[in-house]
Amino acid sequence: MSKICVIGTGYVGLVTGTCFADMGNDVTCVDIVEEKIARLKRGEVPIYEPGLAEMIARNVRAGRLHFTTSYREGLADSEFIFIAVNTPTGSTQGSADMRYVEMAARMIAEELDHYAVIINKSTVPVGSGDVVTRIIRTHLARPDVSFAVVSNPEFLREGAAIQDFLNPDRVVLGSSDMEAAHRVAALYLPLRAPIIMTDIYTAEMIKYASNAFLATKISFINEIAQICERLGADVKEVAVGMGYDKRIGRAFLDAGLGYGGSCFPKDVRALAHMADEAGLHPQLLHAVMEINQDQRRLVVDKLVSILGSLRNATIGILGLAFKANTDDMREAPSLDIIRWVTGQGALVRAYDPVARETARQAMEREGIRLDLVTFCSNAYEVAEQADAIIIVTDWNEFKSLDMVQIRNLMRRPVLIDGRNIYEPREMVSLGFTYRGIGRGTGPAATVLPASDSTTLPPAPTCERTLIGE
Ligand code: UDX
């Protein structure tokens, strides 16, 4: 059992602290926001994350998980201090705002009275490990105290955070102090994951490069989707066909409205900014960001091309959160889409299974006219008298709606499927004017398991016309 302090109770901090407690360690989570800590002490979890509330309650009951606003209390006897505060986009051209990390480093320095390993989990620009070391050294209240700094980027996804933390594909540790890095490695040994030990700059870069690569995969498939649309191919089947190639893999090849959330947008921007600052011009990263923004606009263009004008039209929005299984609205495509359609005179009826309050707050912050938005309590209510519906988030409950009922409730049966969850032919046969992202209308492809590949299915009647025929 180790004594651990985690600074910051956002997604990463709260999940890290809770999971380490669940692994038998004694963990204190520190946050300077009193209201957050008060809520956690009352057993209320400030974020929606499946399984987290139960895990927190279990570990609090077992006396292994504590919450405080006091650095002194959190740091007392802690061998490991994790910094897991947020690094939002700063004011200059996508740079990462290091304010909270620097503040945490200073507060640690003011209270630290024994040797500890300080581990940075926040996504920070390459070279920040040195900044943290310098700040702590400068502000140490007890200059005789020694410490080590280790970078340990976190790769968990919202909505699958506990599962991802406890079953990581890899653990990355970067430090100039290998003994300290080995101590941190020991914390992760029960997870039986590959552990990569490297220098601090490389560890910081691994996080940015991983997120940027995944974002690139998404923008790549979105560009392919646009080409598919023009040439009559179906991007969903293209992704399946590509995904069987082990060098490519099927994950993150879902074409749609592009990426949102707290990580990809800000990390790609920050990496591009770092490269720009270093005198480079990272063309690919800039293209990735441009394509991502285009995806949102294309959906509204599709709407306009079908409805003509949006003035006085009622547009149904299914899903507000940036992705399923979260109430997080950060950089959610729904915000841009609602801003644009209301800007063109439309009224919006919106529903999300979880993101309601967070959606309302985000819209207010973004200056969206809330008087034009009606929040509904289910998908069928959204459909009432709607001139079109846009599926924005792929929540499971949107995947098996009674589409006949939906169609009958709508004023005009127009369905823009921003997450490709329905089959184009089926929707057309139900009477919808349907637009997915990069969906052709050819016969669905069949994939046989390898062992059955000698028995071929009857050849489908191909209705596609080849270009040039
Ligand atoms: C991501 C990374 O996956 C994680 O490793 C990192 O620590 C934080 O950022 P998260 O933002 O929680 O996690 O969500 P993720 O599930 O990765 O999805 C990111 C965005 O990409 C979502 O908006 C999602 O809708 C979109 N996406 C994902 C696609 O558009 N297509 C895909 O194929 C996959």
Automatic annotation (TrEMBL):
Highest taxon, organism lineage: Bacteria
Keywords attached to this entry: NAD, Oxidoreductase
Signal peptide range: none
Catalytic machinery residues: 263
Chain positions recorded as NAD(+) binding sites: 31, 36, 87, 123, 158, 266, 330
Protein residues bound to substrate: 155-158, 207, 252-256, 260, 323
Domain UDP-glucose/GDP-mannose dehydrogenase C-terminal: 316-424
BP GO terms, sorted: polysaccharide biosynthetic process; UDP-glucuronate biosynthetic process
SUPFAM superfamilies in the record: 6-phosphogluconate dehydrogenase C-terminal domain-like (SSF48179), NAD(P)-binding Rossmann-fold domains (SSF51735), UDP-glucose/GDP-mannose dehydrogenase C-terminal domain (SSF52413)
Substrates-to-products reaction catalysed: UDP-alpha-D-glucose + 2 NAD(+) + H2O = UDP-alpha-D-glucuronate + 2 NADH + 3 H(+)
Pathway entry: Nucleotide-sugar biosynthesis; UDP-alpha-D-glucuronate biosynthesis; UDP-alpha-D-glucuronate from UDP-alpha-D-glucose: step 1/1
Example GO molecular function: NAD binding
EC number, as in UniProt: 1.1.1.22
PANTHER family: UDP-GLUCOSE 6-DEHYDROGENASE TUAD (PTHR43750:SF3)
Similarity comment: family membership: Belongs to the UDP-glucose/GDP-mannose dehydrogenase family.
Protein name: UDP-glucose 6-dehydrogenase
Organism name: Thermogemmatispora aurantia
